[in-house]
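Forgive a beginner's question, but would it be possible to get any protein sequence you like and the tokens describing how it folds?
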Amino acid sequence: MTAFSEKDILFMREALKLANAAKGKTFPNPAVGAVIVSEGKIVGKGATQVYGGPHAEKIALKDAGSKANGATLYVTLEPCCHYGRTPPCTDAIVAAGIKKVVLSVKDPNPLVAGRGIRQLRSMGIIVNSGLLRKDALELNEDFFFSIVAKRAWVTLKLALTLDGMIADESGGSKWITGEKARLCVQEQRRIHAAIAVGKSTLNHDNPQLTIRHKSGYNPARIIFSSSKEIPRNTYFFQHRNETRSIVVISGGIPWTISRESGIEYWYTGEADEKVQLTTFLKMAFAQNIPSIFIEGGQIVASKFLENGLVNRLHLFYGQKILGGGKKSFAFKKGMPINNSIILNNTRHQILDGDILVSGTPEIVST
């Protein structure tokens, strides 16, 4: 195992910072950061550009210019070695005279999958991998999952009271959580390729499904529905041309997509519920939407969670107790304790009194 220095860690953290800032703008590509270091100083920086634009390595090489010759490249993902929308990054690295490459994690894309490392080493470049690997994996966890599973990654978020309600008895839910928790939700929206809700949430709350705390991010908007009918007075309909606006319909011929008045209508077929949902996720991946942030409501959240299709769950608990109202989940059939959904890898965060509990759900038999 390679021993990395404190300076190595410092430089890779800078690369990860660049990648995080690019997250949300690069889909379906992963967000990658790169820095070039010569004589102990950063001489070039770069991050992945919008889809079809230069990769992080090439931006950093251009920034460094002639100083890249004999320097070390720190990059959060294995450089690509194939022709896609842009030429291989490995060729540019070799041509620039880079002496050493330090990377966080290998690229699971079958077109790369270690080939980039082997190509660089074959040209006499030193390659060390594994620096801040855990951080890099988490940053692009959606990409690492979707490129292998060939279906979109799903993050499910709910805001709920301490007694598990997502709305009061009249349907009111504004606001269960405070401003800091809602800002955290905005940040989660930023790093996903699409934001989705069910039609009942659309009708009741008329959500914008936008990112309001930072500019330059424009995820697709998705509505789950049983029909094409979308109220014309909703924000979704009136602003349908701002970004990809998609209505997912449970019915019709699976994998069929039609377009009408600026809205895409995706049909998932008449098969059972899990097959329909899986079809949708595979369609999303095929349509360059590798990650989806689902914000409810109860029916949509329950379907994805009960069918084992949620990769990460965020539960934002507000400081309220209602004693009644709309429950967070309503499965078709309640689960027994010894065969329930377990939240693994849990994290807890206090947000001005509200509590965020997050983790990876798994159905476990004990």
About this structure: The longest strand covers residues 339-351. The chain has two domains: 6-141, 151-363. The chain has a mean pLDDT of 93.
